[in-house]
Amino acid sequence: MASEPQVSRASFPEQLRQRIAECGVIAVLVIENPAQAVRLAESLLAGGVRAMELTLRTPAALDCLEAITAAVPEMLAGAGTVIMPEQIAEVQRAGAAFAVSPGTNPQVIQAAAAAGLPFAPGVMTPTDIDLAIQCGCRSLKFFPAVPAGGLNMLASLQAPYAHLNVGYIPLGGISEANLEQWLRHPGVPAVGGSWLAPRPLIEAGDWGEIARIAGRAAEIVRRVREG
To answer: Which of 4, 53, 180, 219 is catalytic?
Structure first.
């Protein structure tokens, strides 16, 4: 039998994969103010969304991540837009349970493996998937999901790698309107989305509306999981 690429310490362990699949949706967030971070995490939890990805696109991102992991331990909090090797240590110190990037950079994956931090590189083509697999990852971010061809594209990409137990977390163009379709795809354990907590609602401190949006998403996840 032909040998298969080895899984590295950067790959999501089975326990984490199961927890993310149980969550079903991951709120992808850009937060400017650490004072809002904990309230935001609490609002998402109140609605039933138990996983979030804080993108490293603002100077406050690491402070926000650290505040959430300290004050809201029930939230599965990870870091997004991790595109440089040195950021792995930074997000790990802030308490990230996992890290995500928009693309596949072997140097970043190697840093994650050395640190033992679960890492999901971004993929859009078969070459991206090949590279991510060779680097030892099995949980991948399909990005940008809808512009890249949507569910039909993912089905085509998934087929050659299905025997390797690769899971895809799509992000980009996904909303409440098409969430159920994506969750019913057998290769998708969870979906990421910024629609769960739009920046205008965060800036306005409208925690009640964020909780309501999260609640509708959680209900869709429940319906899909119950068949």
So the answer is: 53
Check 141, 180, 209, 226 and give the catalytic one.
Answer: 141
Per-residue model confidence (pLDDT) at position 2: 56
**Domain residues for 94?**
14-225
Instruction: List, run by run, the mean pLDDT of 10-residue segments along the chain (227 residues).
Output: 81 97 97 93 98 97 97 98 98 98 98 98 98 98 98 96 96 98 97 96 96 98 94
Strand ranges of the sheet holding 139-142, from the earlier edge strand across to the other edge: 122-123, 139-142, 167-170
How many structural domains is the chain composed of? 1
- Is 116 part of any domain? yes
Active site residue 22: no
Whether 149 is covered by a domain: the verdict is yes
- The CATH number of residue 94's host domain is 3.20.20.70
**Cα gap 120→132, rounded to integer Å:** 9
If one counts every other C-beta atom within 10 angstroms of the C-beta of residue 12, the result is 23
Does 203 qualify as catalytic in the annotation? Answer: no
Task: Decide: residue 209, CB within 10 A, 0-12 exposed, 13-18 middle, 19+ buried.
Answer: middle
- Establish if 114 belongs to a structural domain: yes
1: in domain: no
